[in-house]
Specification:
EC 6.1.1.2, 15 helices, binds magnesium ion, Rossmann fold, ligase, aa-tRNA-synth_Ic, mainly alpha, nucleotide-binding, about 55% helix, 3-stranded parallel β-sheet, Tyrosyl-Transfer RNA Synthetase, single chain, binds adenosine-5'-triphosphate
């Protein structure tokens, strides 16, 4: 069986460091491993419109921003197909058929949908399209016969729901769809990076992000304003590292060699944590170090992004060419789906029965 990756992002804003550690860096690693036959990376504009129907301009503008972030992080259009979801209408048709295989109660139980409805204050006014987005996500994954879906932890319930749809479809209509596997980051801190405000998840919609495109001085300002342990008031106080965003970011980004380079008093992160817990280590010192670590990681990404910003027409060419490749693949799967569902009426079997 072919090894195929499908993953993507909503063009609701530029991408942030949570995306980077949660999914983007893993994609680049898998892309460069050479282990995959096909890699599809989708800019999910149709999904973004499910909760931004009144802001199509926002979605439109962010398509290019997300594409620039991809290229800046090292997604290589020679190795990966980058495409725009709405340019592949087959996905909508698949969604429509899959809707019959899922109950309203099942979507209502999806923990990610639950928490996103709460976060957006939708209460009784949930757009039907938004409610159905886990089903459309199943269409995206299966259309490309994805075997591997590298995403952040918040997407786990989506992949579970997708697998249920695959099993249901295959049991009703015969073995047709491919069962996908989720790939989560191996580093626990990267599963769900908190916001700079300490909220559980860094998210474009919550405005608590460090963006990949932020200039060095903006990153520094954000890092210095970060939430830490609220009880660590004086330098001599013992501090908590669990749940402390500054340390979670260090867990996600820090490598031992950064200590030799930027903070030679310590060998590694364990020593730094130990000092913080013991007392006598101020937040400012830790934040300054985190800022240097982030700069070492984000500097090259920012530079590559600036290079691509000079080549916007080329970026659109990449998106258009990618969307054409993606549509071909999705059309093949849709054909198989129609055949399995016996809605291929004009394929030659004209018997009266
Ligand atoms: P929105 O608020 O519009 O939903 P978002 O910031 O949640 O935006 P998405 O486009 O929904 O971003 O998510 C894209 C990918 O990034 C998903 O695989 C998701 O799991 C991952 N991701 C998003 N935020 C984080 C985070 N804070 N930590 C780790 N992974 C994340
Ligand atoms: Mg999201």
């Amino acid at each position: 069986m072919k090894k195929v990756i499908l993953t993507g992002d909503r063009p609701t804003g530029r991408l942030h460091v949570g995306h980077y550690v949660g999914s983007l860096s893993e994609r680049v690693r898998l892309q460069n491993s050479g282990d995959y036959d096909e890699i599809y990376i989708m800019i999910a504009d149709a999904q973004a419109l499910t909760d931004n129907a009144e802001h199509p301009e926002k979605v439109r503008q962010n398509i290019i921003q997300v594409a620039l972030d991809y290229l800046a992080c090292g997604i290589d259009p020679e190795k990966s197909t980058i495409f725009i979801q709405s340019m592949v209408p087959e996905l909508t048709e698949l969604t429509f058929y899959y809707m019959n295989l899922v109950t309203v109660a099942r979507v209502q139980r999806n923990p990610t949908v639950k928490s996103e409805i709460k976060m957006r204050n939708f209460e009784a006014s949930i757009p039907v399209g938004f409610f159905c987005y886990p089903i459309s996500q199943a269409a995206d994954i299966t259309a490309f016969r994805a075997t591997t879906v590298p995403v952040g932890e918040d997407q786990m319930p989506m992949i579970e729901q997708c697998k249920e749809i695959v099993h249901k479809f295959n049991s009703v209509y015969g073995e047709t769809l491919t069962d996908p596997q989720i790939v989560l980051p191996s580093n626990k801190a990267c599963l769900r990076l908190p916001g700079i405000d300490g909220k559980a998840k860094m998210s474009k919609s919550l405005g608590n992000c460090i963006y990949l495109s932020d200039e060095a001085d903006v990153v520094k300002k954000k890092v210095m304003s970060m939430f830490t342990d609220p009880n660590h008031l004086r330098v001599q106080d013992p501090g908590k590292v669990e749940g402390n965003p500054v340390f979670i970011y260090l867990d996600a980004f820090c490598k031992d060699e950064y200590f030799a380079e930027f903070l030679p008093d310590y060998q590694n992160l364990d020593e730094l944590k130990e000092h913080y817990q013991r007392g006598g280590l101020g937040d400012v010192k830790v934040k300054k170090f985190l800022n240097k670590v982030l700069e070492a990681e984000l500097g090259p990404i920012r530079e590559r992004r600036k290079m691509w910003e000079q080549r916007i027409p080329d970026v659109y060419d990449i998106l258009q060419a990618g969307s054409e490749v993606a549509e071909k693949k999705a059309a093949e799967t849709l054909n198989d789906v129609r055949e399995a569902m016996k809605i291929n009426y004009f394929d030659g079997d004209f018997a009266l029965n």
